[in-house]
Amino acid sequence: MTVEKGYVDAPVAPGTNLVEEIRRLKKEKQAVVLAHYYQSGEIQDVADMVGDSLAMAQYAATLTDARIVVVCGVHFMGETARLLCPDKKVLIPDLNAGCSLADSCPPDKFEEFVKAHPGHTVVSYVNTSVGVKALTDVVVTSGNARRVVDSLPADEKIIFGPDRNLGNYINAQTGRRMVLWDGACHVHELFSAEKIAELKAAHPEARVLVHPECKRPLTLMADCVGSTAALLKYAQESDAQEFIVATESGILHEMRRLCPDKTFIPAPPSDSTCGCNDCAYMKLITLEKLYNTLLHEMPVVEVDPALAERARRPIERMLQLS
Ligand code: 13P
Ligand code: SF4
Question: Ligand 1: distance of its center to the CA of 299 in Å?
Answer without folding.
Answer: 23
